[in-house]
Write a structure and sequence with these properties.
By secondary structure, the protein is an alpha/beta fold. Helices cover 37% and strands 16% of the residues. The strands form four sheets. Strands 1-6-5-4-3-2-7 form a seven-stranded mixed β-sheet. The chain has a five-stranded parallel β-sheet with strand order 9-12-15-8-16, sandwiched between helices.
Length: 511
């Protein structure tokens, strides 16, 4: 029997109700356009809708994955695949909650499904292992779409690099918008495909010769655990005699809300010892790249002599320039040069916005025998306590790739991930305490806009800074009017996008 599983799923509902089990209140044909619209959506209205078979398959697959994550495969099941991931097998031991909710027949204790190419063999079995004989029609009998979608989800999990992070995020923090995203991506990726189905007890291949998700997940979990283990480290500090007295005030002194990440403590000692003389931080806007530079310098007692925004301040005079003084023309060196000469740190923000000719001096400065040549002709050798920090956003409009020779001169390249919800909440509550009752709603807006930016590959950016500005202006205007001045401008005058963002904001009550 050959069917288009994904389109047929929209025609089938359980006889006992249209609601999607554990599906955040969504029902068969629920309109969820406000959460997500896939770029390949071809509906005439451009809307997103859910269906019960796919939605419940996603929920059941998440239950199966939780069992794998927590080591309960003996109770719930597992999935398997061969070396080239061309064949998949899935076994679900029906959780009691699904039987109580009448999602699956109480007779069906085990589902097995086997997938190769677009051919699916599947069957339902009793507790004693006996096959439940049943005619193929109707397809909804024993809710047979579920095992088909489950084994397809297993393949999607293993072969689609964009899909598996969605499922992992959903396991960690189940939310309606992620659920919609998983459902819609799964549907859009396969909506035009036909599948050959056979309801049978025959096993097309031997599962003992296949890799299991649980075994590979255990290895991945152990590796992640090792990378996440952070030991307490005693951070070394420069002595008072390391720098001139007039530079002491340039050592950062930040408020208590800013805390050095444990992951950066070992880097502090690498910077102190000059094992990391040049350090590059990269990541999305608002992840604290410049703040990380300041926190490291604060921790080791290193003055920041200058912070240069490469989008505005980097020019041919970065090392100094001639200016008239009394009746003479004299060369005045910059604080960048003072740092090279006397020791201290400089921070180049958004370094990949800079014109390459203005960065050429860094090649000699960051070399083993570092020096800079001034316009006055003087050669200044790099002080042993000079440190160079740079930050950049990757792939943003107007940025460039760093010259490979310059990139190779960085001793440490640190990728900073997006701030977690907890980190954003901590930042907002510390800086604008009045926004605390509205923080969850603000985060909801933030995540929905970010999802739209990512899925539609828009050349715009929204960051936690926008949320901070929103909260500050909301003190005076309220959250709806303040959003017009702080959140809508991220659309860069795109009226259609402004309307979409405004629609997201209007989903919430702000009084």
């Amino acid at each position: 029997m050959t069917v288009n599983l994904f389109k047929d799923a929209y025609k089938i509902t359980r006889p006992n109700g249209k609601e999607i089990y554990k599906g955040f209140g969504f029902k068969h044909h629920s309109d969820v356009t406000q959460y997500y619209v896939h770029p390949d959506n071809q509906s005439q209205e451009g809307t997103t809708s859910l269906c019960q078979p796919i939605g419940e398959a996603v929920i059941i697959f998440s239950i199966l994955m939780q069992g794998i994550v927590t080591g309960k495969t003996g109770l719930i099941g597992d999935y398997y695949y061969n070396d080239d991931k061309s064949c998949f097998m899935l076994e679900l031991k029906t959780p009691e909650e699904l039987i109580k909710a009448a999602i699956i027949s109480k007779e069906a204790a085990i589902y097995r499904a086997y997938l190769k190419d677009n051919s699916i063999h599947f069957g339902a079995f009793r507790k004693d292992g006996s096959f439940i004989e049943d005619e193929m029609e109707p397809l909804s009998s024993l809710y047979k779409m579920l095992p088909c979608f489950l084994v397809l989800l297993a393949r999607e999990m293993e072969t689609n690099a964009d899909f598996s992070p969605l499922v992992e995020n959903f396991l960690e923090s189940p939310a309606a918008d992620i659920f919609v995203n998983i459902h819609e991506d799964f549907y859009q990726n396969h909506k035009s495909e036909d599948y050959s189905l056979a309801y049978t007890k025959k096993e097309p291949f031997d599962p003992s010769k296949f890799l299991s998700c649980s075994s590979t997940y255990t290895a991945i979990k152990e590796n992640k655990k090792q990378t996440q283990e952070v030991k307490e480290i005693e951070i070394k500090q420069f002595s008072k005699s390391s720098f001139k007295k007039e530079y002491f005030d340039l050592i950062p002194h930040l408020s208590e809300e800013f805390v050095l990440q444990k992951e950066l403590m070992s880097l502090c000692n690498a910077v102190y010892s000059s094992d990391s003389r040049a350090t590059l931080f990269h990541g999305p806007a608002g992840t604290g790249k410049t703040m990380s530079c300041k926190l490291i310098c604060q921790a080791i007692g290193l003055p920041i002599m200058d912070t240069v925004n490469c989008t505005e301040n980097l020019d041919e005079f970065i090392l100094g320039k001639y200016i008239p003084q009394d009746d003479k023309i004299v060369f005045i060196e910059s604080y960048v040069t003072k740092a090279v000469r006397d020791g201290g740190a400089v921070v180049f923000e958004e370094i990949n916005f800079a014109k390459p000719q203005y960065l050429a001096f860094l090649n000699s400065l960051l070399d083993d025998n570092g020096f800079v040549r001034l316009d006055s002709g003087e050669i200044v050798k790099r002080h042993p306590n000079f440190r160079f920090f740079a930050t950049m956003n990757v792939g943003y409009y107007g940025t460039r790739e760093l010259n490979q020779a310059l990139f190779n001169r960085f001793n440490s390249v640190i990728a900073l991930a997006e701030l977690s919800d907890d980190a954003i909440k901590k930042m907002l509550s510390a800086r604008i305490p009045e926004c605390v009752p509205f923080m969850e709603k603000m985060l909801g807006v933030y995540k929905k806009i970010k999802k739209k930016i990512e899925t539609e590959e828009l050349e715009i950016v929204i960051s936690p800074r926008n949320l901070e500005n929103w909260a500050r202006i909301a003190r005076h205007d309220g959250y709806v009017l303040a959003a017009e001045k702080t959140i809508l401008p991220v659309a860069k005058n795109d009226k259609t996008l402004e309307g979409a963002i405004r629609g997201i904001i209007y989903l919430y009550r702000w009084t």
